[in-house]
Amino acid sequence: MEGIDTLYTEQEAADILKVSTKTLQKRRFDKKPPAYLNLNGTIRYRHSDLQQYFESCLVKPAGKPAEE
Hints:
alpha+beta
């Protein structure tokens, strides 16, 4: 089915993000990213939301200015 995003369990999302499930639980409690779904008490993370979270964590160093 086109347009359907892959859903991950809390453990799978934690493994992808290289954090503990406790960290994800705390982030949910604190209303911090990544976004998640609550499907009748079952927590799921969409692939696109995890990707968006990764992108928001990207740090782009300014680097040295070009010499003239």
